[in-house]
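Thread: Newbie trying to understand structure tokens

Hi all, I'm a second-year student working on a class project, and my supervisor (Dr. K.) asked me to get a predicted structure for one chain before our next meeting. I've only ever worked with sequences, so writing a 3D structure as a token string is new to me. If someone could post the tokens and maybe explain what I'm looking at, I'd be very grateful. Here's the chain:
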Amino acid sequence: MKLLGLEIRKIKNDTKYLPLSAYTNSTVFYYSPKMSVGEMLANSTVNACVNIIADAVACLSINVYKKGKNGRERADNLSLAKVLHRNPNFYDTKYSFIQQIMLHLLLKGNAFVFVERNPDYTVRALYPLDPQCVEICMDNEKDVYYKYTVDGRTYKYNSSAVLHIPAIKYNKLRGLSPMEYSTHSAKTGLQLEEYTQNYFDGGIHSKLMVNVPVENKNWNKEDSQKLTEQLLSAYGGKENANKPLILSKGLTAQPININGNSDSQLVENRAFSEKEIAKIFRVPLFMLGSEASKFTNMEQANTNFLQHTLTPWIVRIQEYLDRLLPYELQETHYVEFDTDTMLRADYKSRMDSYVKGLQSGIYTLNQIMDMENLPKVNEPYADKHMMLENYKALGDSSKDGGNKKKGTSDEEE
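---
Reply by user tm_fold:
Sure, no problem. This is what the structure looks like when written as tokens:
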């Protein structure tokens, strides 16, 4: 086909034959130094950020909801809901299970969950797997399977037996953790902590220059080395920091002026490293105790923490947990974390909100009692939605909101 003298050809896109290297052989971030989980957690800022996020998500309850004509309702009778509500497996509670999932995502960039199923293919139990022991593979048909090597044995699982939750994906099946492309910050912070510890353990923090008299012509290299060892053994270390320095044989010593910690900005560098790590995990500095909170109340602080730090992780986990639902229920059911506990205001603000909600017909009295964990009121009116009687519809000019009977005057009414 030619258009305006140009030949136009139709190219057929066939995604079935996508190159395998698009998912398996792509390389990202060449210069990130490898750090083990122990090395990363040895950094106090990384440890604090990871535990703050993991503990906050683990505290939230998880519910399975069903979409209906009158809104949504909880589907607690589903097997997945029972597993997520109580014990995901024999060894873990819901809290410890979600905490492990978050630690795997934050530190290793991947969370792998072995799915044990009932005969009807519903979920029976969920077991977290060590991401360092899992290898993602792809067969000739481009179907994904997993190899799990532990205690010298290798187990092979298909994609339906393992739920894989990646943290950050970049042209790879395997995810990346926030620290995988920013480990320089963690490494620098760890080196600063090690330097600080060595500095205080050293005892003597100034360099000494020992003068040998000119008359001592027999002084050689072995003598200098021996004197150095004697000084370190007698005056080195924090346990010998207050001992007086005694020299013999006419030797004299004087300190050498070198840059101290104030000149090398040790405190400033440690604070900068802390800010960089907090920025990677998007944790507010006031939660690390480094700065004062800029929010007027705790509700605003929790809302900011929930929106900017926790929500991306929560949504990511929710969408992958939805895959555990039976296929025929995935259009009508979904998994969701309950974040209302994080957004609870102070007592006075909650009571004012309840009063407005009750008067506007948003809440019933027993719904308010449930939200405050109080016993229900055993009266019929407690389960009814109520509204002030003098409310009327917009555009209605009648005094009674358009409820006056036809053929009656105001006095008769």
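A couple of things are worth pointing out once you decode it. The chain has ten helices and 13 strands. The two ends are 80 Å apart (CA to CA). Feel free to ask follow-ups in this thread.
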